[in-house]
Amino acid sequence: MPGNTFGKLFRITTWGESHGKGVGVVVDGCPPHIPLDESIIQPVMDQRRPGKSIASTRRREPDKAIILSGVFEGMTTGTPILIMLHNKDADSSAYKPHADIFRPGHGDITYQAKYGMRDWRGGGRASARETAARVAGGAVAKALLEREDIRVSAYTMELGGIRAKNRDGEEVGKNMFCCPDADAAGRMETRVAEVRKMGDSVGGIVEILASGVPQGLGDPVFDKLDAELAKALMSIGAVKGVEIGAGFEAAGMRGSENNDPITPEGFATNHAGGILAGISNGDEIVMRVGVKPIPSIAIEQQTIDRLGNPATISTKGRHDVSAIPRINGICEAMVCLVLADHLLRQRAIS
Amino acid sequence: MPGNTFGKLFRITTWGESHGKGVGVVVDGCPPHIPLDESIIQPVMDQRRPGKSIASTRRREPDKAIILSGVFEGMTTGTPILIMLHNKDADSSAYKPHADIFRPGHGDITYQAKYGMRDWRGGGRASARETAARVAGGAVAKALLEREDIRVSAYTMELGGIRAKNRDGEEVGKNMFCCPDADAAGRMETRVAEVRKMGDSVGGIVEILASGVPQGLGDPVFDKLDAELAKALMSIGAVKGVEIGAGFEAAGMRGSENNDPITPEGFATNHAGGILAGISNGDEIVMRVGVKPIPSIAIEQQTIDRLGNPATISTKGRHDVSAIPRINGICEAMVCLVLADHLLRQRAIS
Amino acid sequence: MPGNTFGKLFRITTWGESHGKGVGVVVDGCPPHIPLDESIIQPVMDQRRPGKSIASTRRREPDKAIILSGVFEGMTTGTPILIMLHNKDADSSAYKPHADIFRPGHGDITYQAKYGMRDWRGGGRASARETAARVAGGAVAKALLEREDIRVSAYTMELGGIRAKNRDGEEVGKNMFCCPDADAAGRMETRVAEVRKMGDSVGGIVEILASGVPQGLGDPVFDKLDAELAKALMSIGAVKGVEIGAGFEAAGMRGSENNDPITPEGFATNHAGGILAGISNGDEIVMRVGVKPIPSIAIEQQTIDRLGNPATISTKGRHDVSAIPRINGICEAMVCLVLADHLLRQRAIS
Amino acid sequence: MPGNTFGKLFRITTWGESHGKGVGVVVDGCPPHIPLDESIIQPVMDQRRPGKSIASTRRREPDKAIILSGVFEGMTTGTPILIMLHNKDADSSAYKPHADIFRPGHGDITYQAKYGMRDWRGGGRASARETAARVAGGAVAKALLEREDIRVSAYTMELGGIRAKNRDGEEVGKNMFCCPDADAAGRMETRVAEVRKMGDSVGGIVEILASGVPQGLGDPVFDKLDAELAKALMSIGAVKGVEIGAGFEAAGMRGSENNDPITPEGFATNHAGGILAGISNGDEIVMRVGVKPIPSIAIEQQTIDRLGNPATISTKGRHDVSAIPRINGICEAMVCLVLADHLLRQRAIS
Q1: Rounded mean pLDDT of chain A?
Q2: Which of A211, B13, B158, C81 is most exposed, with the fewest beta carbons within 10 Å of its own?
Q3: Strand residue runs (E) in chain B
Q4: Interface partners of C (3+ CB pairs, < 8 Å)?
Q5: D5–A11: do the CB atoms touch at under 8 Å?
Q6: How far apart, in Å, are the Cα atoms of A330 and each of A208, A240, C255?
Q7: Cα separation of C174 and D189, whole Å?
Q8: Of D46, D105, D52, which is closest to residue D297 (Cα–Cα)?
Q9: CB D260, CB D314: distance < 8 Å
Q10: How is residue C124 annotated by DSSP?
């Protein structure tokens, strides 16, 4: 059944394949009177653009966002907003030889099983190219949230086994890995260069912060804010784990350690990560995702073809060594979408 | 907005508070001709019943499931199934003195912020009592899945910092912590007794396995099977982290290590945890959740009252030392609900 | 797939069969702080109760509404409200002889086709008994609307071919057919008595008015207010036609006749029925439904049994001669549900 | 909240304004392996194209449908299908003088009330131009239904007060009004010419037939097939009434007349219009809609401007004299969408 729509009140529907004519998003439910035009969306798109980091692919999509509806005289009108991103630099020739071979770690085998066919060009719908549409939709959500002084930011806490030791917000924009620790960023650079030479890839951990989120967002018992965030983040292809606040570390703590004492000035600690019983508590919302290494690697791998015969594959296409830091902007987009949706949801009962 | 419905085709809606007249679930979308009566639901309910483990509360609810609709002559009819669980052993008197005090780590403060009021008796809707309705709904999903030979099981991998070293399925039913490692189970018992004496509580990690899941379940790009499972599991109150397959460990692996080679006989490894690109690959689905320690502890904690004045609280009510192992059955229920839903979703396009 | 949930933000889910243990409704999404208890719901239930009109069945259900959740200290809490109606006076014996015979005009044959089975007792889920749960849910919506001074009322414009000539609101409560025309009501009484003697049944037309509806409700282009009302009303078993404002009469008018001139004081006429382009225009919303005659009649009818063999049937059970006026309260309930939903929907973007 | 999505399993989301860059539709949930390309969609689009009838506008949009995603090698892939229709012949200059004046019978006043602003160019989102996207989406549904031998057709039963006396399917394609009665069609032509000269417009009645629909479609109790059809049809701008089978005429019949006797060969009559208790009974589904006259007329009308001052308006733009017969294809599209959705819905439980 349809799985390409996300959100209830602030809702996006995305479409498009890696090597088709383009990808895009319909944003439905955005309130009117939000200032919006391409100049607001484009900077958000540019942040995720490949080619900004040595960890990233060499495919160069200008990712020029074009608004085709829903905006009039520089403002949203309350009607659906279509944002189009044409595919320009899609070269399917590299995929042709492997059209019938299932790439390990990719959705080739499962798309074939589910649909009985697949668009093999560049991974088709399962390509990371799909996420450009989410980022475009997320940019609209971001514009809505900024009017409420809600800010979402993602940064790299770990890459290729190298972990950031501190969280210096200023530093994030200064290095190519969006890492809040200058020293770690330097070692990440070395690590990524090594791995690239090996024809291999690496994973890592991204932390996402949402600040300025008012108390009261989230709808128990199934649409809890943390449940919705978990779905949003886990729906990103490379993500294999999601945690909120202390996350898995909380599993090893005692109640007296993990509980956040409440004072007249606010919470003394934030192990909860800004969410209690599925509802935002006014504190910063803290999330982390575990990102698997890019499955497309130059190293030869064992696999099968569509008929079940053994085969080997070595991916020589234009691919990233890591989904990080490109994935950071996608995480931000998904979190923005959840928060915009729940902001509107909460208005309905207030 | 409404947040008490879960699932699209196989769908539950739950209701009820800890100290109200009862809790219950409407199961809508269950296909007809599934054998069902109370004798099928009750054993699933009994598994989660408090009082089976020394980690569990002393509140004794018989949790007698009563089917009020949707079943005729021992079979589901395709119409909505209402399962009712009366509250029998609800004693609000212990909560009265703290009606205006926000318990740390609980939803008291966020429910108050969201709704401007709250049913303070036993945590109201935010109580773990709510989950009994999920388990009842999950029992119907389980009955549906069993006809397709899909089995879901949860067991305790870590409790109070003690980690299971091996996964002996036989062992799970033999110890009170549902731990697949007899030795670890013994040490868990000691640990829980210690912590209880300290008036404190512990968290842990539960692993859930789904076997027999056919290829092809999950709807890209937002309703991916892992995204839906993440939401389902994170919607359980005490869960702070969810991972699939290698999960956060994948973040530290290289592509060549993490990718599961494909052979004519199937996948050589299962780091993916049975899901590729959001679609089940036919392998076992492996999930883990990080469970925070129970926030209600006897140790005195710092907090505020409804008016913002400083206060202290020491919870003397009947509470578990850990949500584990009671939470295990709730995890199973949520996974069953997701799988039943996606089983039906996949039929629609097949 | 699930079809027993109605509404997006103010949402009901109903369950229960005619001769099962009861019927009921979960209301999810109702804002907190709405005064509610059984004394508010019961009068609305009593209005629809059979046995108030000579057109109505002799089955006497007390229809005592019991709230099991979602209300605390006389106020809604924002959590789901379960309202239970036990079946007391259900006698299946009259249905037993016809368990395998498809009653013409009923859902027996289609339920069998759809589900491959059916609960034949009293029509099972297809019974008008189901609508009691809608009325209970509608009573909650009504309580919400009344705080905004929105009022919904239904009255009988035609019964057994006899048409009301005028609309005297005062008169509606004075006659047993809820007809706004005393003279017509008298003739309806005669007509119904005749038809009852013939062992036959009659249909009619109900008009529903909603006043005090603010401008701006309704969500183009598919969830237009009139589209949602049409669905709501057509989902009532006996309804075969729905019209808004001038309705089918508009088909015979010219634009210059049908257009409502706009003046600084408001619309000069109301052919639109209070809705323009799917959005409420602040004027009274006017709807009419065509109600088919009750299909259960004493006159012998030609049919088949479950195996396809010819059969005859003459329904001797306790049945109404007309769904009117009992259906009037159901129409009111459905309209209240749509308006409550859209009231909340509009708040989200305001 | 979002109102631009229709359907649950076979789902469309539309976007676009009359005088923006284009309109379009995302079709999500279409099963894979359905042959599809522009050559299948274009003929369906061409049928609705303005300029084919003397009742129609002189605006000439080529309405060239372009598929941007979801199709690979001439087949649907199971991923979302974007169909784009560029606006070519949009001339806003005629609307400029009336940018601040509310046209009677249009959504100008209600869009302004709802959103606090509006795109006044050509009616913006409220324009009939929006329906082109529905027709494109409906063409995909049609392709799906044809594989199951389900056919949907609409024809004109009444126009400008002239009623078709017989239903000659062959005749429908032969006259410019799609009327199944050659004689009536001739008189309609005269009538339309007269009314055009008067600067006025007319309404009418369209009947829609769906044949080959299997038994069992429709989901009680709220998503009944007739309820969903009523919503679908009433969501078309000009429709003010919807009826199924005997419709409002059933209101005047007795049960013994209205009930369709069942024989071993099928139903003896079809007053039910192919639907019993909200589920298709295998017979032809018969629907009728009442279409209001086009509100844009040359005759001067009384209205107000955005500030509430009295004003007059005479619409000189390029407009139809009647929404019929262009609306016929839109009715077909909406019915196809409902049937495709319910076909998939029924598979899920079978």
Answers
A1: 94
A2: A211
A3: 5-6, 11-16, 22-28, 65-67, 71-72, 75-76, 81-86, 151-159, 162-163, 204-211, 239-244, 262-263, 266-267, 275-276, 279-280, 285-291, 301-304, 310-313
A4: A, B, D
A5: yes
A6: 11, 15, 51
A7: 50
A8: D105
A9: no
A10: G
Give whole-number Cα distances, C294 to C57, C302, D255, in Å.
11, 16, 6
Residue of A nearest to B232 (CA): A227
Q: In terms of C-beta density within 10 A (0-12 exposed, 13-18 middle, 19 or more buried), how is residue C44 classed?
A: buried
Q: Look at D119 and A79 and tell me if their CB atoms are within 8 Å.
A: yes
CA B159, CA B155: separation in Å to the nearest integer?
11
| B107: Cβ contacts below 8 Å, ≥ 6 apart | A220, A276, A277, A278, A279, B123, B126
Pairwise CB contact (< 8 Å): A303 & B261: yes
Separation between Cα atoms, residue C233 and residue B145, nearest integer Å: 36
Average pLDDT over residues A157-184: 96
0.95 exceeded by the pTM?
yes
C127 closest CA partner among C314, C301, C326, C334? C326
Alpha-carbon distance D164 to nearest alpha carbon in chain C (angstroms) = 13
Give residue A82's identity as a one-letter amino acid code: L
Mean per-residue pLDDT, D283-310: 97
Is the link from the previous residue into D44 a cis peptide, with omega within 30 of 0?
no
A181-235 pLDDT, tens digit per residue, is: 999 999 999 999 999 999 999 999 999 999 999 999 999 999 999 999 999 999 9
Mean predicted confidence (pLDDT) in D310-339: 92
Chain D residue nearest residue C307, CA to CA:
D264
Residue at D329: amino acid letter: G
The answer to whether the CB atoms of C350 and A350 lie below 8 A apart is no
Which of C21, C26, C114 is the closest to B68 by Cβ?
Answer: C21
Contacts of D11 in chain A (CB under 8 A): 2, 5
- CATH for C5-349 (3.40.50.970, 3.60.150.10, 3.40.50.300, 3.30.450.20): 3.60.150.10
The ranges of chain B with pLDDT < 70 are: 48-61, 89-90, 317-318
Distance CA(C230)–CA(C248), nearest Å, equals 14
**CB spacing of D26 vs A4 below 8 angstroms:** yes
Give Rg (Cα) of chain D. 21
Please tell me the distance from the alpha carbon of residue C322 to that of residue C328, in angstroms, as a whole number: 11
CA distance B34 to chain C (A): 11
Q: Which residues in chain B are closer than 8 Å to D8, comparing Cβ atoms? A: 8
The letter for the amino acid at B306 is R
